[in-house]
Fold these 2 entries.
Entry 1:
Amino acid sequence: MGSCLEAKFGEVRMESSGVFLGPFIHSERFEQVTVVDDGILIVRNGKVVLAEALRGRDAVTLASAHGVLGSPVVLRPGQLLLPGFVDAHVHAPQFPNAGLGYDKTLLDWLATYTFPLEARYADQEFATRVYDAVVRRCLGAGTTLACYFATIHTESSLQLARCVARAGQRALIGKVNMNVNNPEFYNEATQQSIDETHSFVDSVRAMQNSLVQPVITPRFAISCDMDLMKRLGDIARTKDLHIQTHISENIGEVEAVRGLYQQCSNYADVYDKAGLLTKKVNRAGARRAPPGGGAAAAGGAGHVGGALPRVQHVSAQRHVRRAAPAGRGRHGGTRHRCFRRTKSQHFRCYKSGIGYLHTCVILKEKLQAFKLSRSFLSSHFRWSKSIGYG
């Protein structure tokens, strides 16, 4: 992570080694939140080596015992430390359309708003301007680990990876694959999609940045045929890559997939037959049907549920909760973050007030806010493990 990878909030700087005194919140186990009002946090070589209540002990002596020297940073009144948030599903190119499209269902929304916008990312200047803003906004909201969808354009997708690397964010970046049932202005030939995916993966890895990794990204089963999905599954296995896609976001989508893949028993079975249901896959949606059992459960496949459906649709909540005993990750998409611990850059210092864009807001009465913690963490804690960062 470098000798001085840091996050800055006000006057508090998080460096590769240091000692921090004040209140903090963290979680070490599923469905558990620990709140410490008078704590000490010791970071050595980029990793948290101690995070517990101070209990009247001498901070300098404790730090020295852990091989860390120097004066502690004391948080100001109204500040607290907490692990960085994780966003398991971010459509970076859709940032300019935020708030549009509530008059459309999914497939019409894609055709009317999303595909025309995403086609513009063939323009490198436009892509750079938007992606810089997206990464700044995510980091400003405390999201230190994100899983990004880009577009079908290799060069602009690489530009997103560069923006993330410059900002010091940890991220998975996916060049989107789409070869059927798409508008002519936003589509790929199958071999082109495969060739560009190889190029994208190799280019991201050539950056030699451990914080930024490629992820195989078939958009969903309507936009990709079985041949493309199988070949993408082969790439993921050969190169040991994560996979992200969508599943069962609404009734129209589910019916369309049923018509396209009549040989498959359900939506999840499509991905299973394509070889995409690995322990490194995360599927966004599953609001209208269960994420799938059998191979999905055995493979440890993850599931991403959006914040608003989690609150508004009982069926989505039921299906997501049902997946947990099978061992699959459950986690949140945009505007729905989670806590994680270990890397120093994942701790941010926040003033009391509303936590911008976050489902679990931080109020002046910070302990009261975390009465929401059980459902919050049960939806999200496992995601960092499912993508290899737990």
Note: The chain has two domains: 7-84+338-386, 85-332.
Entry 2:
Amino acid sequence: MVWALTPVGTERGAQKYYISAAGTYTVGRKDCDIVQTETSISRVHAEIAVEKMVAWEPRSGAPASPSCVSVVDRSKYGTFVNKVQGTQGSRLRKDEVVVLSDGDTVTFGNGNMTFRFSFIPIVVFFHGKKSARIDRSLQAVMTSIG
């Protein structure tokens, strides 16, 4: 499973980012995991925390649920969740943690650096003569890559 951060709009220099492992990722200027160069972006503007990715076996009947993703504002100019162009949107308070859902948008700073968070499941198909359960070591490897 992977989380994609896709730029919304046509901001120059904006690139798409993929998060495929659990951990905390920093958003900000140089030396951050997700680097943004707009002037309203703080040195460490925000943190994105991704919980452990969970494998799902379709035969088990369990629903596919993406890992929990949250954003924490650490900035001067703010971080906004689901901001609609032309409106103030929902600005996070400094150090406030907000859980994100598939399809949410996050705007960093007071400019146009907006990204859509999208959950992308990785589907692996194995075919063989025997109808056997997936080997535990193979399942561990697949879980480690998302």
Note: Residues 136-144 form the longest helix (9 residues).
